Amino acid sequence: MQNFDVVVIGGGPGGYVAAIRAAQLGFSTACIDGYRRKDKYSLGGTCLNVGCIPSKALLQSSENYAELTHSFADHGISCDNPKIDVKKMIARKEDIVNKNSNGISFLFKKNKITELHGWASFSANKDGKWVISIDDQGKKEEISATHVIVATGSNSRHLPQIATDNVNILDNEGALDLTETPKELCVIGAGVIGLEMGSVWARLGAKVTVLEASDKFLGAADEQVAKELHKNLVKQGLEIKTGVKIGEIKNAKKKVTVNYELGGEKLKLECDKLLVSIGRIPNTNGLNPEAVGLKLDERGFIVVDADCRTNLPNVWAIGDVVRGPMLAHKASDEGIIVAERIAGQHPHLDFNTIPWVIYTNPEIAWVGKTEQQLTAEGIKFKKGVASFMANGRALGLGHNVGFVKMLACEETDRILGVHMVGPFVSELISEAVVAMEFMASSEDLARIIHAHPSLSEVTHEAALACDKRQLHG
C-alpha cells in the first residue's frame, strides 16, 4: 500500500491547489479525482469542466456576436448576414476546458504529485494513518495518508418534481452543451448560473424567461447594484419574474411546460429547454464518512472549525463541501491555507474580503458589506458613488453603463464595502480587496494616482465622493 504525507480527495480549484501547495512545502502528496468528461477523466472539478471556465468562454463568444450584430455599426464596422455557428462555439469551449485540465496534470508532474483517478472513500484508521479506498471503474486499490484534505465540491440542486435529463431539463452542465440555440429558454433561479447562461442564449436569439422564487432580485448583492443590473438585463430582452412559486413541470419530447404561481395568479409557460439553477449542495457522495465518524451537519456539509479542521485528527475539508460561500477562489485559498497549517504555519482567511462576481453584461462585483447590511447593523457610514457614464475609457469601449459605490466608516473612514456594476468590474474589484485587506481608508484610495484614461478612475472618483470632493461628477 502506497503511503503519503497528504492525500487530497478532489481535483477542483480547492483540491488541486491544495495538492500543489502541499508538495511545494515538501510533503509527499497524492490527489484523487473521479470526475469524467466525455468518457475521460478530467481534472479541475465543476469550475473548470462545467462551471466557471466554460461559461466564461461561452459568455465571450455570445458577447462577440452581440457586438457584431448590434454595436459594431457605431464603430463604422459593418457585416452582411452575420451568423453564429453554435457547434463551433461549443467546440472552442471544449478546447479551452481540455487545455486547462491538461495544464493541471502538467503542474502535478512538475510538483511530483501522484495523480490518481476514481472515486475515493474513507476505509479506516490504522496505526494513525487514514486508509483511503479508490474505485476506478471497478478497479480497486487502497492508499494511506497521514493527512487527508477533503475537497469534493458540490452538485447542482435539482427540483423534486422533475428529473434533470440534460436534454430538455438542464442543469449547468446541460446548459453549457447545447448544440443549437433554443427558441424559448426558461430559467428557474436568478442566481449566478441562471443569469450568466440565460444571458448567453438570449444574445444568440433565444427568448429567455427567468423565474425566481425570492421577492428580491439578487438579494445577496447591494440593492442599488441589483437594480441597475436588472434594468440592463431587461433591456437586453430577458424577462425576469420574482416571487414565483413553481408548480408542476411536464417534460414532453419537444416542449417543457412549467406551471407556476405569481401574485396569486396561476400561469403556464412553454419552452424548448428548461434550465434549473436553484443552487448547489455539498458533495459527499461515496465518501463513506460514517465509516470513520466524519461529522456532517444537518444540510450535508462537512463540519469544520475556523481552520478547516474536521472532528477527526489530521482530516481537513475545504471549498464547497464546507461552510462559507461556494466560490472557486475561496476554495483555492482554503486549500493553500490548510497545506500551510499542516506545515505549522499560521495563515488566515478573512471571509469579509472575499470578492463576488457575476459575469453578466454589465458585470457586477462586490466585496465587504452592502449598504443594507450596514444600515441593519446600525453602523454609521458614508458613501461615494461614481458613474461610468462619462468615463473616457468606458465610452471608447462602448460600455459606459453602471457605477462604483464605496462605503466607508463615518468615524474612521475605513472602507467597509465596495460594489460595482459596469465593464470589467471583475478585474477592478481586486483594488478594493487589496485596500480592505490592508484596512485602507477611502482617503487612501483617493490619494492614489490612477492611470488616465482607465476604468479604474471610476473607483478613484467613488473614493473622492466619500468626502464629497468628486472631480468629474
From TrEMBL:
Entry EC no(s): 1.8.1.4
Positions bound to FAD: K56, T152, G153, S154, D320, M326, L327, A328, H329
Using the UniProt record, name the top-level EC class of this enzyme in a single word.
Answer: oxidoreductase
Q: Which reaction does it catalyse?
A: N(6)-[(R)-dihydrolipoyl]-L-lysyl-[protein] + NAD(+) = N(6)-[(R)-lipoyl]-L-lysyl-[protein] + NADH + H(+)
Keyword entries, A-Z: Cytoplasm, Disulfide bond, FAD, Flavoprotein, NAD, Nucleotide-binding, Oxidoreductase, Redox-active center
Q: Where is the FAD/NAD(P)-binding domain?
A: 4-335
Q: Which Pfam families match?
A: Pyr_redox_2 (PF07992), Pyr_redox_dim (PF02852)
UniProt cofactor(s)? FAD
Cellular location(s):
Cytoplasm
PROSITE patterns named among the record's database cross-references: PYRIDINE_REDOX_1
Q: Which cysteines are joined by disulfide bonds?
A: C47-C52
Q: Which residues form the active site?
A: H452 (proton acceptor)
Q: How is the cofactor bound?
A: Binds 1 FAD per subunit.
Gene3D superfamilies linked: 3.30.390.30, FAD/NAD(P)-binding domain
Q: Which InterPro entries match?
A: Class-I_Pyr_Nuc-Dis_Oxidored (IPR050151), FAD/NAD-bd_sf (IPR036188), FAD/NAD-binding_dom (IPR023753), FAD/NAD-linked_Rdtase_dimer_sf (IPR016156), Lipoamide_DH (IPR006258), Pyr_nuc-diS_OxRdtase (IPR001100), Pyr_nucl-diS_OxRdtase_dimer (IPR004099), Pyr_OxRdtase_I_AS (IPR012999)
Q: Which GO terms describe its cellular component?
A: cytoplasm
- Report any one BP term from Gene Ontology: 2-oxoglutarate metabolic process
Residues the record lists as binding NAD(+)? G189, A190, G191, V192, I193, G194, L195, E196, E212, G279
UniProt entry tagged with the keyword Nucleotide-binding:
yes
Give GO MF terms, alphabetically: dihydrolipoyl dehydrogenase (NADH) activity; flavin adenine dinucleotide binding
- Domain Pyridine nucleotide-disulphide oxidoreductase dimerisation, first and last residues per copy: 354-463
Family under the similarity heading: Belongs to the class-I pyridine nucleotide-disulfide oxidoreductase family.
> Could you share any additional remarks the record makes about this protein?
The active site is a redox-active disulfide bond.
Name-wise, this protein is Dihydrolipoyl dehydrogenase
The organism's taxonomic lineage, starting at the top = Bacteria, Pseudomonadati, Pseudomonadota, Betaproteobacteria, Neisseriales
